[in-house]
Amino acid sequence: MAPAAAASPVCTAVSDADRPATASAAHALDFACGGAPSDYRDRRLWLRLDARLEGPRVLRLERTRFDALSVHALYADGHEVVQRVRSGERELRWSIGGFSAFELPARAAPLRRVLVAYDGLASHHLLRKVEIVPAARHDAQTIAWAVLVGAFGGIMLSGLLFAGFLRRRLGGAFVGTHIAWLSCTLLWGLSWSGVLSGVVPSLSGTWGVRLNSVLAGLAVFFAARFFLRFIEREAIGARVRRSIAVAAAAVPPLSLAAAWDPLFRPTERFHLLQEATIALTIVLVIAATAVAWRRGSASARLYAYAWAPPVAAILWRVVPTFGIELSNAQAEMAIMGAAALQAVLLGIAITGRLSRLRRERDDALEQGRRMKLLAETDPLTGLLNRRGFVGRAEAVIATAPRSGLILLDIDHFKAINDRHGHDLGDAVLAEVGSILARTGHPAGRLGGEEFGVVTAGVDEDELFALAEAIRAEVEALGPSDATDLPVTVSVGLATARSTAGFNALYRCADEALYRAKRAGRNQTVLAGAVVPALRSAAA
């Protein structure tokens, strides 16, 4: 236990609790200065602070769980000031900074001794700090702590709102665990600091301390869960992930056991287990972060930068359990400040991680789109290949109230290839493909020298006019370079009014195409016509 402000040790003694707590009763006890008391549960634990102090003073006791508490201020002239409070009574006892504060008024005679009697104290281990400070210093620190709590709480609340915005807009399971961590930490800070006690007076005593313990355990649990979801799975091994998950899962129930002394006794054991498990969880997370960093994980670097402040502050808070005395208010305020800083840093880190995931997703979608485009595109003409054209045509036919299909085949194409080579044949195919692409309708090369165009919202007359325009434009190409062979196409048409479904529409258009070839080529024939609807003069 820490010494008083006057540098005198805190001595302890234990007595039965069946009589009123009085200074005269305490004088008959054998106080031990140094070491931890024993056998005080269900009895009365006395604390004695000897000092010769003048001026107004404040006794500050770290808030912990108890049934009743009395403070006896003894002055050199024999005067005694007694203050009593029961668990959950607020009055003017709670103070921002995690203390129960008792004013020790100034008198003509100096303050000689302070006796504190706890009935039903849950754990002497939890009573880390007992000190007497000047009233002016206490007031100044209270104002400073109130300002810091307000600032840190405001930052955390802003971070919480920002995380909620990211969750709604960008998603990410780890954002949800970050919101849970920040919510627990914010509530813990408001409860520890005493702000919640101003709203709910019962939280100034036992219930407030229990709430602090439970919220601290939940905060550690969600912090570890955030790590497991934020870091890429391949960056750390499955065994390490399981170890962190198991250690983190043990923290909340141990925190509950440490808080609920009526059910779990002795609470010192659970409190030690709680803080040891918290330390183990943090050590495992630190080690896993280092491993992931070495493996090149960008998320691990972001995590390390954002979580270094709260992890350091939590370890600072846990270390006193193992024998290093530390001001409770400083440690708790450090955690709250570190959590506020982490809210800012992690907001930046989450934004960066989500942006990277969004870029990776967009890149994957773009790559998939390109792969699909390549899989459905004819490399020579740039039109859809047969697979792509059939899919597009089926979609058009299924949704358009009026649709049509144009099939065309280059006349005597084999002769061009045989007499002048495939390079010239490829040039002819590319030129025809260019003409079809300029129509603005989905067009494709169905194989060899056969092409197709599907239309939507076009009646038979318009479809026929479009097909004739294509045929005439191809015919206008004239003889190919290095050959006197003209380039012409035979065209077959079918509309959705004639049939239904792509396969049936294709059969009708294909039948019309062969009728055009049998009629002398360089023709446009509409399915269902007895004779070709139009025959070019060149035929």
Summarize the entry for a quick read:
The chain has 539 residues and is of the alpha+beta class. Helices cover 52% and strands 17% of the residues.
Proportion of residues in extended strands: 15-25%
Overall spatial form? rod-shaped
CATH architecture identity of the largest domain: Up-down Bundle
Low-confidence stretches: 1-7, 529-539
How many β-strands, per DSSP?
16
Report strand order across the widest sheet.
Answer: 2-1-3-9-5-6
Supply the CATH superfamily name of the largest domain.
Answer: Rhodopsin 7-helix transmembrane proteins
Query: How would you sum up the major sheet?
Result: 6 strands, antiparallel
Going by helix content, strand content and strand pairing, the class is alpha+beta
CATH topology of the largest domain: Rhopdopsin 7-helix transmembrane proteins
Mean pLDDT: 80
Q: Which H/E pattern describes the elements? A: EHEEEEEEEEEHHHHHHHHHEHHEEHEHEE
Count of helix runs: 14
In helices, the fraction of residues equals 40-55%
